[in-house]
Amino acid sequence: MSQTRHSHRSAPLHGIWVPLVTPLRDGEIDLNRLQLLADRIIKQGVHGLVVCGSTGEAAQLDLAEQGAALAAVLEAAGKRCPVLMGISGADTYAAASKALQFDDLELAGYLVSTPCYVRPSQEGLRRHFEVIADATGQRIVLYNVPARTGVKLELATARQLAERPQFAAIKEAGGNLQQMSDLVEQTPLAVLCGDDALLFGALCAGGHGAISAAAHIRPDLYVQLYELVRAQRLDAARALFRRLLPLIRLLHAEPNPAPLKAVLARQGLLRDELRLPLTPASAAGRAGLACAVDALMALPGYPPESFRLPRVAAVGAM
């Protein structure tokens, strides 16, 4: 195992991670645009990237396309940034087989969601994750997202899974700050907020970071928010989050990632193209997004290479 692979496989699962959209062009993945987008986000100081999450329309990509997307992002990221690969599906053994195919790649781990549609018991969930873990040497980031899958990963089940060190983190997207706080206090898991609108509260409750779709837009400001909370500069962090929140709400007002792709297309970063059953954002939605994005783009940049207190204070005081 190379030193680079070792460093990525043991990279802290903390900070701001961006679950990349998948750029499309005439129905096919635009790998060049995907690499340019990954490079742009990395340069703004994020702590990690996720490929083939729900924001990446993974459910609409076949296995070959997912592998191509992952290879392209790994090439773009190089030694600069760790990468998680999304694993999902209602068939436990198919998901385990998929994980096995990527097992030798230079990954930070797998983001594994609860299975959709079948609504298993908590025992079924536990065994689902354990079977996938048994198939791979990679770390597992649990993904609790009941709004998408129809089933909730209960705290007790997360605690059971966390007894095995391979389960290293959880993306908690259940819309419940108390659940996030309980996970922080009662498990050794790194707790990553998966609800963008709850990000400030989650960080203040001890959360270790976020996997944030909204952080595609001004990633540097999400890194700044994370650093402000870590430094206990909560007034400045609260003020900054208030500036982020209007766009966050609009980005989730229609099915993700349609609003996000509309914004990125307006910025010239990709085509406003999705795969059915997803459709582009509405005209009214795009109009609201344009105003919110313009306001956010006017904020001063945050330099990830140094934590400059005077500059941070200036942004937070707005």
Walkthrough of the structure:
The protein is of the alpha/beta class and 318 residues long. It is 47% helix and 13% strand. It has 14 helices and 10 strands. The strands form 2 sheets. Strands 1-4-5-6-7-8-9-10 form an 8-stranded parallel barrel, surrounded by 6 helices. Strands 2-3 form a two-stranded antiparallel ribbon. Strand 5, helix 4 and strand 6 form a beta-alpha-beta unit. Helix 2 packs across helix 3 and helix 11 runs antiparallel to helix 13. The N and C termini lie far apart (48 Å). The N terminus and C terminus are likely disordered.
Task: Annotate the secondary structure layout.
Layout: H1 3-9, E1 15-19, E2 24-25, E3 28-29, H2 31-43, E4 48-51, H3 63-77, E5 83-87, H4 92-101, E6 109-113, H5 122-134, E7 140-144, H6 146-149, H7 155-162, E8 167-172, H8 177-186, E9 190-193, H9 199-204, E10 209-211, H10 219-230, H11 234-251, H12 258-266, H13 283-297, H14 309-316
Parallel strand pairs: 1-4, 1-10, 4-5, 5-6, 6-7, 7-8, 8-9, 9-10
Antiparallel strand pairs: 2-3
How would you characterize the largest beta sheet? 8 strands, parallel, barrel
Q: What is the 3D shape?
A: globular
Given as residue ranges, the uncertain stretches (5+ residues, pLDDT < 50) are 1-6, 306-318
The number of helical elements comes to: 14
String of helices and strands: HEEEHEHEHEHEHHEHEHEHHHHH
Report the C-alpha radius of gyration, rounded: 18 Å
Multimeric organization: single chain
For the residues shown, what is the average pLDDT? 92
**How many strands in all?**
10
Work out the helicity level.
40-55%
Biggest sheet, spatial arrangement of strands: 1-4-5-6-7-8-9-10
Beta-strand residue percentage: 5-15%
Termini separation: 48 Å
Q: Given the helix and strand composition, which structural class is it?
A: alpha/beta
